[in-house]
Design a protein that fits this description.
It is a single chain. This protein is an alpha/beta fold. It has a single domain, classed as Rossmann fold, CATH 3.40.50.1820. It has twelve helices and eleven strands. Strands 1, 2, 3, 4, 5, 6, 7, 10 and 11 form a nine-stranded mixed beta sheet that branches. A two-stranded antiparallel ribbon has the order 8-9. It is globular, with a radius of gyration of 18 Å.
């Protein structure tokens, strides 16, 4: 079934036009609620529409009849800085950008629904939870976490080292990260694939198309770097004075938590902690990966068999709740 793809630029009210894409295979009969996929840090939404060996996450969900939206926030993908500042942090993305995207989806959805489902990927999970904690009236029904987190419980030594000093990492400004990744990823794939294993595992994901995969890479932002470093030290996610971590027991949204068994960016104990403490009466946990087929952070979206192992369970959950 051929998918219909539409692209939008959405004013976030802060001088940026956010890039959004809608994908659907049943334009006149979309089912369920619209689904908005929220990207993580240092990435854009490209990876949700790409898979090296089959249908992507977006294509798989849309094939089930769901209306799928993806979002590029400030500094990501096709989004445009019109008149706004380049100084922004996690709260701006979680509240203003995500709020503008949700409002746009509900104005244009063909489902007739009055609420939306959010699929947060990596940092996108924290942004989704920060939004519903900060905006109690947000029209959000279900939440899905894919290799995401709210509270740091266990931190990989590499991540702890990189974010060890909030002040230092907040001063660092990295540019041309995608170009660097375009050179480094194919090289590491050939000569030292184990160095990639915290993010991508060559035993689980076909890395021969790494030159295309790097289209999802974005430059890190120094303010967000500092905020992440402070968040790791503190453990709890705090956004504009609200301790998002402490709101979890009171949240009742249906929740699906997808954890990668060999994730070196958001370690399994950290990723599943949200599932353990959320107060939702409807929640499910999916641990992906086996000892002989370890699944790292990015493998959830790219691994061989992701369509059956990851994407189908996500679609099942969204259609059931």
């Amino acid at each position: 079934m051929t998918a219909q793809i539409e692209r939008f630029l959405v004013d976030n009210g802060a001088g940026w036009r956010l890039a959004m894409t809608r994908t659907r295979t049943r334009p006149q009969a979309a089912i369920g609620r619209p689904v908005l996929i929220v990207p993580g840090y240092g990435m854009n939404s490209f990876i949700f529409g790409f898979h090296p060996r089959g249908p992507s996450l977006v294509e798989s969900l849309a094939a089930r009849g769901l209306e799928i939206w993806t979002l590029d926030m400030r500094g990501q993908g096709r989004s445009i800085r019109a008149r706004g500042t380049s100084r922004y942090g996690i709260a701006d993305l979680a509240i203003e950008d995500l709020g503008a995207a949700i409002a746009h989806v509900l104005r244009h959805t063909a489902t007739g629904a009055t609420t939306i489902d959010l699929v947060g990927c990596s940092l996108g999970t924290a942004l989704a939870f920060a939004h519903v904690a900060s905006v109690p009236s947000a029209p959000v029904h279900a939440l899905v976490s894919m290799a995401g987190l709210v509270t740091w419980r266990e931190v990989h030594p590499v991540v702890k080292l990189a974010f060890g000093s909030p002040r230092l990492i907040g001063l660092m400004r990295m540019r041309n990260t995608r170009q660097l990744a375009r050179v480094a990823l194919p090289l590491l794939t050939r000569v030292a694939p184990s160095l990639l294993s915290v993010y991508l595992n060559h035993r689980s994901t076909d890395l021969t198309q790494s030159s295309r995969m790097v289209q999802t890479v974005e430059d890190p932002h120094p303010i967000i770097n500092r905020e992440i470093a402070e968040w790791i030290r503190r453990g709890d996610l705090i956004v504009r004075g609200i301790n998002v971590s402490r709101t979890l027991p009171s949240l009742k949204h249906p929740f699906f938590c997808v954890v990668a068994n060999d994730d070196g960016i958001v370690m399994p104990a950290t990723s599943r902690h949200t599932y353990d403490v959320i107060g939702s009466p409807t929640k499910r946990l999916l641990l992906v990966g086996e000892p002989d087929r370890p699944i790292a952070h990015g493998d959830l979206f790219l691994c061989t068999g992701a369509q059956e192992r990851v994407f189908a369970p996500v679609a099942d959950f969204l259609l059931e709740v």
